[in-house]
Each structure stands twice: as structure tokens, then as C-alpha cells.
Amino acid sequence: MFEALTEKLSKVFSSLSNKGRISEKEVDEALRQIRLALLEADVNFKVVKSFLSAVREKAVDAKVLESLTPAQQIIKIVNGELSGILGKEPSHLKGSARQPSVVMLVGLQGAGKTTTAAKLALHLKQSNQKTLMVAADTRRPAAIEQLKVLGSQLDIPVYFEDSVADPVQICRNSIRRAEEIAASWVIIDTQGRLHIDEVLMKELVDIKKAVAPSEILLVADAMTGQDAVNIADEFNKTLGISGLILTKMDGDARGGAALSIKYVTGVPIKFFGVGEKASALEVFYPERLASRILGMGDVLTLIEKAEKTFDKQKLEKLESKLRKSEFDLDDLLEQMRQIKKMGNFTQLVEMIPGFSKLTKGISDKESLDRTRKIEAIILSMTGEERRHPELINGSRKKRIAKGSGTTPGDINQVLNQFYNIQKMTKMMAKGKLPKNMPNLLGR
Questions:
Q1: I want to staple 129 with a disulfide (CB 3.0 to 4.6 A). Which of 67, 184, 235, 239 is the partner?
Q2: Range name among 30-34, 76-80, 335-339 with the lowest pLDDT average
Q3: Sign of torsion, CA 217 221 226 227?
Q4: What is the 3-state secondary structure (H, E, C) of the chain?
């Protein structure tokens, strides 16, 4: 996510950090490079101009330039201004005084509304809020069936009628159904449409009048850059949208839409999608995303993901073993499986401050293949070997390699990584953080 932009900004800040004192001229050169990076990332020109003006005004202040750490001060200023154009404060879902609260999902065809409806419903379910999904897209082939399948997989009820029914009436009827099952939220999956299609846009206006939604969220593809910004602006003029959900953010190396859309439209981003899984929906926190863009990680989101995924008793058991320096290959296997449940490994590593560079050039498939290979190797070991890897000699390595479809060299690599992790956990148990942590992790 934002890989290209993050890399360019990191180079700018790295060059500033190498200087003891920074002049106004050097600040201007750094801002020129930041300007080019943002424009290449397809950020709206007005946004770039306003952002750089605000940064320069604060960065050339005498207190900043004459401080002992001017580069860090400038990075802090950039981080704050980035958070500002992203929206400053998070914008959460707002329910209505009378239940059920209704969320209308609107947008172009292919933006990912149906899968987003399921992701949003799961997000609410995880907060112990009962949700009814509504299949109001009667024109796209298999749209109703797709939502029914997703509802079945997530154990979330879906209201639907046949494909010849009127979408406005379907939505009206769904409210009665939600009241019958005591649902707190109704999520309406509408048909994708162009904002210039007057007939279909009027249908959305009619649905809005019929169900009085507390939220009208535009689902937009982040990879379309400024097109997403323009579409949001047009939908907002016609419909009055209350928020945005940006999809495919995990595939957006530039970031133009995310960095422009709130400033241009005035509409806040509420969520963003980072993968195909139903759990791959994140609440949009401007400050956290700004930190990710600057390669500073996002520890809070990582902790929240871990709290949702990890088994509390297993974590306590692991913590006890770590304190006693008893971490073994069985524990490594268990933690790998827990991490896989949290989501994409590359995205998780990017949330750890200073670790974003470790995933450069590694695709999602490569990281998954690497994880599967390590799993196969550990599962091909005996219980005794997993508890006491020092027993694994040459002949045992050949047997493990044959059982896992790998090579003795692969076994050596896994063992070396394990010993490094073991060394790291022993140091951390003593309250020390290794300076060469990335190297210890075998990256």
C-alpha cells in the first residue's frame, strides 16, 4: 500500500537526516522532491499546493531549523499535515435514533459494493451488532446470489426478492424484516451506476426517501486515483453522501485517491479494503495512515488485529514460555498460523515501525509460499525434534526434506531463522531490544 510514494518520501527524509543542520534552501529542495512524489502519486494539484504551503510555513520556523533534530521536526510536521488532508480525526458510522440504522452502499459497477457489504456486516457483527444485508441490485446477473452466499458463509441474514422486483420496494420491505428480527443495522447493496445516468441516480434518490438512511457510503476503487475523487464529488452533489469506503487499497502503490478525496469533496473516508477476505476491512484512521505512508508503521492497528485474532489463553501460555526462554518450533508453528488468520503477512510487517523495507519486492504470493514451506518443514519433524531442534543432524534433515518436498538447505534456513528468533526472544525477555532485529529475523 502506497509503496512507491513511501519509498520516495523515505529517500527525501533520509537525505535530510544525514545533515546536522538544515538551511531554508535545503528545506525548499526537500519540498520540491516531495511535490514531485505527490504529483507522481496522482494526488490532486490543489491538495499538493495547500499541503506544501502549510509544511513550508512551519518547517522554516527558526525553532525548527536551529533545533538539534531538525530533520525529525520536519518529518513530524509532514506527518501532521498528511493527517490533516486525510481528515484529521476518524469518522465512525453514525446510527439513527430509531433502529434499525440504515447504510446505503452506492457507486460504480465493479467497485466492490457487494463484497464490501459483507465486510461491513462482519465488522458490525464483531461489535455484537445484528445486521441484515439487503440484495437491492436486481440488474447485475448473480448479484443476489453472491450476497446470499456471502451471508451464508458469515452467518449473516440476507433479505432478497426475485430479480424482477422494484429495488425501492425491496429496500422498503427490508426495513420491516429488520424490525422483525431485531436487527440493529441494515446494509443495502445497490446496483452499480454511472453518476451521469439520470434514471438510475433518481432510483437512488427514491431509495433514500423510502428508507431514510443514517449513512450513504460511496464505495470507490482506490486504484482509479483522481477518477475516484471526481466520482465522489458527483455522487455527493446528487445524493449527499456521508462517507467513503475505498476498496483495493492493498493494490494502490500511489495513493492519489486517499490523499485527495477528503480535501476535494469534504466527505470523510470511513473504511478501506485491503484484500479479498471478509475480514480485510479497516477503520480509516487518518493519523495511522499518515504514519504508514511515511514508513513509520501502524502499531495500534496491528494490536487491534491481534486482539481480534489471537487466542487469549494461548497468548498467556506463549508469554510464559517466552519469559522462561522455552520458545520452540511448535510455538513458532502456532504463531505462524495465528498470524495467517490476521491477514496478509506483507501488510502486517508494514505496520511495524522501521520494517516496511523488509517487504519490498516480496509479493503476497511469495510471502504465503514461504510460510507454507516453513509449515511443511516443521510438520515433517517429529514431536521431539520440534521441542529439541538441536537433535536434527544431517540424516534427519534429509528425511525432513523428503517429507516436506524441500531441500536440506531449506531446513538449514528455517533452523537458522528459528535460532535467531529464539535469540531475539531471550533478549526481549530480559528487557533488551536487539539493534539488528531485521537481520535476526532473516530478512
A1: 184
A2: 335-339
A3: negative
A4: CCHHHHHHHHHHHHHHHCCCCCCHHHHHHHHHHHHHHHHHCCCCHHHHHHHHHHHHHHHCCHHHHCCCCHHHHHHHHHHHHHHHHHCCCCCCCCCCCCCCEEEEEECCCCCCHHHHHHHHHHHHHCCCCCEEEEECCCCCCCHHHHHHHHHHHHCCCEECCCCCCCHHHHHHHHHHHHHHCCCCEEEEECCCCCCCCHHHHHHHHHHHHHHCCCEEEEEEEHHHCHHHHHHHHHHHHHHCCCEEEEECHHHCCCCHHHHHHHHHHCCCEEEEECCCCCCCEEECCHHHHHHHHCCCCCHHHHHHHHHHHCCHHHHHHHHHHHHCCCCCHHHHHHHHHHHHHHCCHHHHHHCCCCCHHHHCCCCHHHHHHHHHHHHHHHHCCCHHHHHCHHHCCHHHHHHHHHHHCCCHHHHHHHHHHHHHHHHHHHHHHCCCCCCCHHHHCCC
Per residue in 309-323, pLDDT (tens digit) is: 666 666 666 666 656
Same domain, 211 and 141: yes
Look at residues 286, 312, 336 and tell me which one is the last residue of a structural domain: 286
Last residue of a domain, one of 32, 61, 86: 86
Q: What is the pTM of this model?
A: 0.70
Residue pair 186/101 in contact (Cβ under 8 Å)? The answer is: yes
Q: Judge whether 188 and 211 are in contact, CB under 8 Å.
A: yes
Q: Residue 76 sits in which domain range?
A: 3-86
The reply to whether 95 falls in a domain is no
Query: Considering the domain boundaries, does residue 145 fall inside one?
Result: yes
Structural domain tally of the chain?
A: 3
Residue 210: count of CB within 10 angstroms of its CB: 17
Give the residue with greater pLDDT, 170 vs 26: 170
pLDDT of amino acid 356: 52
Q: The CATH number of the domain where 399 resides is what?
A: 1.10.260.30
- Extract long-range pairs of 348-352: CB within 8 Å, 24+ residues apart: 348/302, 348/305, 350/1, 350/292, 350/297, 350/298, 351/292, 351/297, 351/298, 351/299, 351/301, 351/302, 352/297, 352/299, 352/302
